[in-house]
Amino acid sequence: MSTKPDVAFIGLGAMGFGMATHLVKVGYSVTGFDVWQPTLDKFAAAGGKTATTPAAAVEGKSVCVCMVATAQQAQQVLIEGESSAATALPQNAVILLCSTVPCGYVESLAAQLADPNGPVRRPDLLLVDCPVSGGATRAADGTLSIMAGASPEALSNEAGRTVLSDLADPTRLYILNGGGIGAGSNTKMVHQVLAANQILSGPEAMGFAIRLGLPPNAASLEALLASPGRSWMFGHRGPRMIDGFQPLASAVTIILKDTAIITSEARRAGFPTPMTGVVENLLYTALGRGYGGDDDSSLLRLFTEGAPTPSSTETSPESVKLVVDLLKGIHLASAAESLAFAHFVDLDLDLVLDLCINAAGGSAMLEAYGPSIVAVLRGEPAPAPKGDGSDTETLADIYKNLAHAVDAAQQIKAPIYLGTQALNLLRLALRKTSSDNAPASAAVNVWVQ
Amino acid sequence: MSTKPDVAFIGLGAMGFGMATHLVKVGYSVTGFDVWQPTLDKFAAAGGKTATTPAAAVEGKSVCVCMVATAQQAQQVLIEGESSAATALPQNAVILLCSTVPCGYVESLAAQLADPNGPVRRPDLLLVDCPVSGGATRAADGTLSIMAGASPEALSNEAGRTVLSDLADPTRLYILNGGGIGAGSNTKMVHQVLAANQILSGPEAMGFAIRLGLPPNAASLEALLASPGRSWMFGHRGPRMIDGFQPLASAVTIILKDTAIITSEARRAGFPTPMTGVVENLLYTALGRGYGGDDDSSLLRLFTEGAPTPSSTETSPESVKLVVDLLKGIHLASAAESLAFAHFVDLDLDLVLDLCINAAGGSAMLEAYGPSIVAVLRGEPAPAPKGDGSDTETLADIYKNLAHAVDAAQQIKAPIYLGTQALNLLRLALRKTSSDNAPASAAVNVWVQ
For the 3-hydroxyisobutyrate dehydrogenase-like NAD-binding domain, which residue ranges apply (chains A, B) (predicted)? Predict the structure, then answer.
């Protein structure tokens, strides 16, 4: 067992508090900092030490975990604020930046630390770009997914690795060797393409189901979750969609923040993200209606306004099929957008796919067609089919079934923003394929130049 | 002057009543039919004759104008309903189908009339597919835009041509020689791509302007309408946007009906309409909120929810530029989608462009770049620039300016669905062009195989 370094922990929000108290539980000396005094009191009660400035928290600590909410906050606590952390850290300390921030920000942070004429001049500090995924429960259990990029020296630093290992599930600690600073944030970003799309596809599908007359109950949900339309997000949010959007597990503003990172980085890189673009606008609409602080399962309200409450308690197989076909089309398009973006920013596609399938971005369609989408992106032959029939549909099949769902939605005047977008993207992809029997993975041709 | 044939007029709604009474005014004997008795009484008071069934209305008339609201209604009054018109019309009479219907419907109507085993067996009847555009005022003035396709025999029929000439503005009667049945409906449809997108782009732009702090007043509107972001629709709806959405000129449900025709025909043809797809979903959202019967200028409400009322009365040039750049990007994308669809359904692109520029689909961007988009679609060299600098921007310029507007919208969390869609489409188009200096017309490359 390796020696546990003393840790400074900056940012004790829903995620950070769980992570920091987990470290305390497994034997670390952790000094926490947060701007919200009641949180600090609570952390002290859980066995942590506390400090009233970032500088005081990091004094003498060889590892500083930063888990604030935004790049602006990270810049404040690490560099610009009064008594910020960077200048106060001991020589050769490690900064584990676990916040979800744009790749562009973490690159600029590395440059600021190293700048010999900058405000901090700390080229000795070892910055690790290591956003996390998994939610508050896994944060508190030390079983997060973590994707870590940095210089070889920072990545191999013993103290930093020890802390990361104790925060992550052992099978879900992704060390992005060779990726460098930005690879962690980019990996999180492409995962969030799936997360964002699938946080919305569930409500859109459930709203469509309700308008088709399916009762919003456990039986309907079960039918949808047992299908190729399933996603991790729908499994997680679905029960709250049929149960008054309670309890509050993840607010609309959380995914909105990550979605804005995706689209702003896409603009910076010159990459099109039409699926996520639709998601972002729906989230702004939700924000304008005052839903920002509500659980994101409540986005269902965007799709049920004006809909009659279903009078039936029966789950019609025909209606279930339409909803499943809607979800399949959306999830194929979001898988293609996510993996194409990962390829565009030079990530290791095998690692990204493995990570996404086993995290909140997972879906049946990603599992089925992700490997062959990766092959298309690399210009390699498609992998052999799994043999269970789950991954052998053609693009034309998925398009045709989605088109039937869109026809049905039009008849009942149901808003299906993502389904419509997916349909148009799959149609653009079909126009770029030479064969009528192109596999579903050809959806990614929209993004292939 | 030609002899005025006796006319049966079926469907006396906002448009039909104006058209029918105009015919009465200029000397026709017109027998009207409508399901709504008060309308019939009003028509009688205006000098028309009335009938209580379609069959009674058409008895002995050599021309039957059908101006009902939907394909379903047309099918009822012409073919399927009790005492429907088709069987009762005299030999070789002309049916002028002025309703906006899908091309697929008018093709099926022609087939039903001609079918020797069908319910009516009237191959002698001359069907003209001639939807109109221009609104209720121009309907009543006899100055509509009319786009007419049919067999050569039907198109050259004297009685039918006489009536069409009296309903249309002489410069806006588009006889689609060689187009056949469907060409009129398709021409209207591609015009409505522009109409639908521009009915929404005005509210989206005005909502963005308000969130940027521009006062929703005449000065702001004037600044936007004097720019390359102008459109006929914004000029028409803009004053009502800043004046409480009054008076009711065109309800949300009207453009929704035409939008559904566009997207369903696009699915039938296998053509992607990503811009119009977004519009349709926004309209369903509006419908769900109960805005269906309101003037479509009130779609502004979709974009201002939760927005603070601007406190300034000043119109900042920087903010105006952002809004103009948003509109320019949207209108370039909608022009490309419309003309590419026109090309896909084999319409005469010069005629379509001329019609659209001079009708409700007009915009500064269509005027500037429409001719060069047509050249791209035909694989011809671009026309010479006009010399006034209005048509020489590159695709990269328009993209870059739109991206700045989208950045600004993201900062203030403004929903800009069409702007985001246009941005992603222009980015896809840029990826398909080999040169950094590709002209703006290269936007249409999204749709070029």
Answer: 182-302, 319-437
